[in-house]
Amino acid sequence: MARIAVIGAGMGAMAAAARLAVAGHDVVVYERGATHGGALGRSTRDGFAFDTGPVLLTLPAVYRDLFVKTGRKSLEDRLGLTQVEPAVRHLFADGTRVDLPNASRAGVGQALDAALGAGSGERWAAFVNRAREAWDRSRRPLLEEPLWPNWQVLAEREPYPAVPRRRLLRRELRATTLAEIAALELGGEPRLRALLEQYALAAGLDPRTAPASAAVLPYMEQTFGLWSVEGGMRALADALYERCRERRVRFRFGTPVRRVVIRGGRAVGVAVDTGARDAGAEGTGAALAEAGGGPATTVAEEAAHVVEEADHVVAGVAPDVLDSLLDGVPAREATGAPARRTAPSRVTLLLALRGARPPEAACRTVVHTPDREGELAALFGAEPGLPERPTVTVHRLPDPSLVPDPDHEAVTVTATVPAATGEAAEAADDAVSAPAPLSSSGPFASFADRMTAAARREIPDLDGRLLWREVRTPREVEAATGTPGVPAPALAAGGGRWLHPANSTAVEGLFTVGGWSHPGGGLAHAGMSGALVAGLIVEGPDFRGSQ
Fold first, then answer.
1. Strand partners, 366
2. Which of 90, 280, 306, 440 allows an S-S link to 276, with CB 3.0 to 4.6 Å?
3. 455, 426, 419: which is closest to 438 by C-alpha?
4. pLDDT at position 166, please?
């Protein structure tokens, strides 16, 4: 039985902890904050409850497998999962509205033909068929297996089979980016382009530079579906936390790790604050005994830190945070896939509304910007700022546990933004501010007003129903996860720019987990990173992924 120290209690870290514990290891999780779940936060007020991170679940099979492998009760024994219908409503800039059914490619084609004109569904279906080939080629190396040592193969090979466009006496054209797919394969139809590019934007990617392999993003959603969790996505984090506790994983909240202890080139423990042992222990003494006792063995005590032994250390933190824990020791081999250190973030509005949720409301509505070029220039230009007219996603779940009574509605509105915080973000916001339709103050206030204006296209009576609004910015993302950026899933091609570093590191015994490591960001990918780290520790470096 090995002693495992896990840094952070995010979803990837807890997935690794549960799998390692069921394999017989002694696992302690050190979390700097007061709770678990990482990005899967919850905000409550006046009987309303809101998810502050992801709102819907893709690829639930990842967590079904996790619960099957770590205990007797399945995921559905712990949670109510419901496929949302429609999967998404799109409100395009020209006023066109289309509802796309969940996990029905034929139904999506019919809906697009009806809303956008004959032939639209056929073009989209042909694109999704090609995206399936990209998924089949990249699924195992980019989701189910540890990152290949020869990762350059993934960086150089484009798995998407772009359609050649022949030109007289000139070289044929092939799409190499998502935007080029829209132009060359979707006929340049502006609404199909907006539909496709929104998947990149939601992941924090610039569709003009995101590789064609990003076609797997709409493929995953339209093939495997979207699911809501009864009680909100926070309930998924709670269920995983309880599964860890059942497997006798111990949690130390309010216990930031100050450094990873390295001796002889190997990670041998973590250093935490001297007073954190008592202050960070969860629950009562009885609860601790039930969970498996106290912390890992103390091997040394310093003036300010306690060093706690471990045979392996699993770090669920961003690359810059990891570097700060290593006292100058390189985390990665020079020949490894480089770490991505920045990513766009999000602003989330929490809207408490009087009046019942209309039965015709969609669970998720994408309200597209009328100024694509302006939005992309603001988000991904040389000097990123907040767009004047953002694309927003409106979530309206029919979950009674999220509202004080049936005569109220809880709505979240999200938009992708640069990860800049503080004065820089406020200055950028002021530079593009519009007259505020709502009284508000503080960072991102005028941008929140513009997001609210966009949401009115989906909720026309919003002003008359609004009780209050809270604005959550990249600062709140950083408070929950340790970094303001929201990492994207790993993608092939593009010279490796969209890959994430391997779960093993240059330090023997140190592994990384979560959205900033292979296979990248997103709930499903975080869950898979936990499976990969557990496999590497249990089976060793010859582990080749789930079978």
1. 90, 393
2. 280
3. 455
4. 83
**Residue 304 confidence (pLDDT):** 76
Give the pair of three-digit tokens for residue 56.
């819907």
Question: pLDDT digit string (tens) for 63-108?
Answer: 999 999 999 999 999 999 999 999 999 999 999 999 999 999 999 9
Q: How many CB atoms lie within 10 A of CB 385?
A: 20
Splitting the chain (547 residues) into consecutive groups of 10 residues, what average pLDDT does each group show? 96 98 98 96 97 96 97 94 97 98 95 97 97 97 96 96 85 94 96 98 97 98 96 97 97 96 97 68 39 47 81 97 95 94 95 97 98 96 94 98 98 94 47 40 82 97 97 93 94 96 97 98 97 97 86
Name the strand (E) or helix (H) holding 346. strand 345-354
Q: Residue 277: its pLDDT value, please?
A: 55
What DSSP assignment string belongs to 87-142? SEEEE-TTS-EEEEPTT-HHHHHHHHHHHH-TTHHHHHHHHHHHHHHHHHHHHIII
**Alpha carbon distance 279, 243 (integer Å):** 23
- Say if strands 408-417 and 345-354 run parallel, antiparallel, or are unpaired: antiparallel
- 25 contacts 49 by C-beta, under 8 angstroms: no
For residues 31 and 9, the answer to whether their CB atoms sit within 8 Å is yes
Q: Rounded to two decimals, what is the model's pTM?
A: 0.92
Q: Which two tokens stand for residue 350?
A: 């929490």
What is the residue type of 518?
Answer: H
d(CA 116, CA 103): 20
Asked if omega into 404 is within 30° of 0 (cis), the reply is: no
Rounded Cα gap, residues 137 and 374, in angstroms:
35
Beta strands in 101-247 (DSSP E): 165-167, 170-173, 226-229
Cβ atoms < 10 Å from Cβ of 531: 24
Q: What is the pLDDT of residue 345?
A: 96
Give backbone dihedrals phi and psi of 392, rounded to 5 degrees, phi first.
-125, 155
Q: Is 503 helix (H, G, I), strand (E, B) or coil?
A: coil
CA angle 219, 221, 227 (to 5 degrees): 165
321 torsion bin: left (phi>0), alpha (psi -120 to 50), beta (else): alpha
Element (H, E) at 430: helix 422-431
Tokens 């798995």 correspond to 159
Q: How far apart are CA 534 and CA 259, in angstroms?
A: 22
Q: What is the 3-state secondary structure (H, E, C) of 273-321?
A: ECCHHHHCECCCHHHHHHHCCCCCCEEEECCCEEEEECCEEEECCCHHH
Burial (Cβ within 10 Å: 0-12, 13-18, ≥19) of residue 302: exposed
